[in-house]
Amino acid sequence: NICSCKIRTSSGPLCQGTHGKLGFSYRMAPRVQLEKAAWRWVDSVRPEDIHREHIEIAYRICVPPCKRGACRRNCKGNPNCLVGIGEHAWLGEINENSFHNIDDPNSERRDKNTFVGLTNLGATCYVNTFLQVWFHNLELRRTLYLFLTIFPFSDYEPRSICEHLQYLFALLQNSNRRYIDPSGLVKALGLDTGQQQDAQEFSKLFLSLLEDTLSKQKNPNLQNVIQLQFCGQMSYVTVCNQCGRASPLPSRYYELELNIQGHKNLTECVTEFLKEEKLDGDNRYFCESCQSKQNATRRIKLHSLPHVLNLQLMRFIFDRQTGHKKKLNTFISFPEQLDMGPFLEGKGIKCVYELSAVLIHRGVSAYSGHYIAHVRDARTSDWYKFNDEEIEKMEGKKLQLGIEEDIAETVKSQTRKPKCSKGYHCSRNAYMLVYNGSPLSVPGFLQRLVDRDNRKFEEWCLEMADMRKQSVDKGKAKHEEVKELYELLPAEDGQQYEFVPLEWLKKWLDDSTVTKEIDNGNFLCSHGKLHPDKVGEAKRISVKAAELLFDRYGGGPRLDGSTLCEECVGQRCRVLRLKNQLAEDYKEVTNLVKGPPKSDEGYWVGKTSLRSWRQLALEQLDEDEEETKHIDGKTNGEGPEITATKENQDEDEEEMKTFNEDILCRHGGLSILESERRLVTEEVWSKLRVYFPRAPQFTQLQEPCQQCLRLEREGKENEALNRMMASEQKSSLLNLFQEKNRPTLTKWPQETDILYIVPLFFVDEWRKFIRRPTKTTPVSSVGNSLLLCPHGGFMFTHDSMLMGDAQHIALLWPGEWEVISRHFLVDQPISICQISQATPNGSSVEYTTQPELCRDCREGFIFQQQRDMREYAQATVYVRKVIDDKRVSAAPEVNVSGSEAEDEREEPVTKVDGERDPDFSQIEDGAKRQRLSDSTIGAAASPAPMASGGKSGIRRSTRHRKLRGEKALIVSANQTLKELKIQIMHAFSVAPFDQNLSIDGRCLTDDSATLGSLGVIPESVICLKVCTAFILDLILNLNL
């Protein structure tokens, strides 16, 4: 009475299926245990004895469904588990916000009595900080609103920079948005939004551009607004120590650039800015009164101060040691009220400024970081922090920099923050201070633009609110649908059922995705039914629920209880039983093959197959399991054509896939190689045949393939002919094969006036055949047309071949050419002749070729070569660091830019005479020889001098041998010299202004010129001399 399913549970000894026998019901187990339990019955049931109850066990029809709360996630091995597929989001209390991912549009609305932020377009935070500071300058804003180019019309749009700035200020003043997009102004300025510029330089250039534009206006208030707001008067006064003559040089300033290095407070910085400077020694001053250079003093005098005083704290300085800018993280104390009276020339003048803005750079590097601004509202005196889109009001109407000093610090500073007196602030990130010495209305034409933008914003808010409402209504309807259908999903015992994909159910319960039609096509086996291996990816549901789902969403095919595949279950049963029996059969076959077979009763098997038959059997059984699964994204239910295609693909593969395939010839017969096969008994073959029913079968009386035997005889005859041919050709052209006694163009041989030319490729292929005649195809023809132009003319001259064009040709003696002509087919003979002529001044020698030179094609070839040298991309050049024409070792390796080529491992180089000249290298006998370049002629046709013994010169590599102190850089022809200097700076740690570059003794000085125009070609060697700081300072002093 024991149930054959043998499945376990802790609930009791009775099987919970429909078998009516004693046994053990399922206990919920992991997926692997469920898989094993579903096929445990195959040990006692043969494939022909399978019944319906075994099929239902294999498809896990009787596995109990899981209850809610019992599983943390869905049991994929249990087709009846409908827990954890996303139903929890629908069966509890519903939050309407879960039906949409649309934020409340009112969160984008500007709050009452707050300011408007600016969007960061990538790396434009430095622009946003200055725009907020200038916006809070009420006088500048009021005057800028008066700017007009033409009378504004109804569809007016800003075009110029001033018009964009007007519109931006109007939006910052009256927009309903929490933040606005400044891309119109940024685009008009031509700024790169992905690259952070120098903030101080941007401020100078923008105010200069604004002043130049406004100066052309007819309104005098507009013409002088920049000067009235930001411009002051000062003078550089030089006093001669000899005669006392003072020479003032008046000047205007828009900001004071203060050095902060070595100072603690703002007063010290201003004092140093105005302190007296001595001019003596080489820096003496030429006095007009004394008419000679005299010692003198020079200082700056402030005559007037602007309404808005901009103080630039020079935090970003150039480090001469590293060749890069760096940031000074020095604490500087500055007051809320600044009295500039003591620094003016007119004594007794009281000039007190109020701190109105502090611009902050957060970060420790000069090349990265983030810019924010603290600005005081002129109307309420409240302080605000402007951080792009985010705006924060400071508490208590006080400037608070303490938090800002602790943010974005990646290194610990050894300097502790000093204590500040009342009315003072300390910062190590402030780089600009703004000091200032009534409600404002927007002009009508600008207000119309603002109103239009506000209407767009309100329309967007209404549209977003409507979309939120539609999503909520749709979600509520889906909620009712899920509540209705989920209760109908479980299939009761004894009732009809269908299968639907688990992934489809999850997507149906996932409101973020669109529910598509039900697709069961991936679950079909080759018989068009439900594959047993796919039951873990499907769920068994009631027929009533399936009808509702298919009616609403469509799809198919429908898989019910009649689609459980008996053929697939039987095949799996056979395979599993064979896998269990394999170990026992392997031992038995191993013992049986030790004895020789009886006469006329054996079978041929491959030795390789016999050695690995156990592994092949496992692979064959696995393949039998997989053969009913999916192939190339289609179901096997589409017909036998797919299986046939797979078999054809397997037959084309070289790797052995089937037993006995190693003794199968390409014609389908028995292989002629007896060493690769052996005889086994009929008993052994019958056991192997069980595992490999489709393996090729050859009895002991089977004859080898006749076609293979014939081809073997013919192959041996061809090999003999090739050996004879190679021996004859080698004896006739022995010097050509051994590269001995070769003619050259540098020293024409006296014994002949004519030499013949063939491609070097032909000679190389012919030598390969001579060396291995049985493994290489014989050379049958000489393709001289490769060396000719389309008109049949020769492409090279005698001089060009001497200069390097001969690297792809080989020269032949006349006798060798006769042998070549007899043994090979020649499409076009090519020869070069030496013609000697007597003249009154002596004899002259000319060289002619046959066919003659095609001048038009030759000129085109030269032009193309030159253009390629000028228009290269991603080519390699070598930079060699020298001092006084001597090569020195390179600086230690640094992390170079991506444009630098990877350095090869340097080889030890011994210093020798002549090393200073890059055009010469040393050979073993100590004599100087000109270095071979990339255009050096190959060994077979090389014009290089021959050794005394008649042997040709050693073939030299055309690759550049990098010397110690050289670095390879990747450059392009359209790259400027300035860009190359930046690459060199990264490679050698030499600043661009300290670099003195030359090539072939010619200095490269024009930084804006391209490398192609400067004559820098691939594989060039550029010499780098370092211009030391002492020499540079001397040049600067001479210029002064």
From TrEMBL:
The UniProt keywords, alphabetically, are: Cytoplasm, Hydrolase, Nucleus, Protease, Repeat, Thiol protease, Ubl conjugation pathway
Which ranges are annotated Basic and acidic residues under compositional bias?
907-932
* UniProt cross-references to InterPro entries, sorted A to Z: DUSP-like_sf, Papain-like_cys_pep_sf, Pep_USP48, Pept_C19_DUSP, Peptidase_C19, Peptidase_C19_UCH, Ubiquitin-like_dom, Ubiquitin-like_domsf
Domain annotation Ubiquitin-like: ranges: 971-1022
Enzyme Commission identifier(s): 3.4.19.12
Occurrences of domain DUSP (ranges): 470-565
Listed under GO cellular component are:
cytosol; nucleus
Q: Which residues cross the membrane?
A: none
Q: Where is this region: Disordered?
A: 622-654, 890-956
Reaction catalyzed: Thiol-dependent hydrolysis of ester, thioester, amide, peptide and isopeptide bonds formed by the C-terminal Gly of ubiquitin (a 76-residue protein attached to proteins as an intracellular targeting signal)
Q: Provide the primary localization.
A: cytoplasm
Query: USP domain: which residues?
Result: 116-438
Output the Pfam families linked to this UniProt entry.
Answer: UCH
Family assignment from sequence similarity: Belongs to the peptidase C19 family.
What is this protein's record name? Ubiquitin carboxyl-terminal hydrolase 48
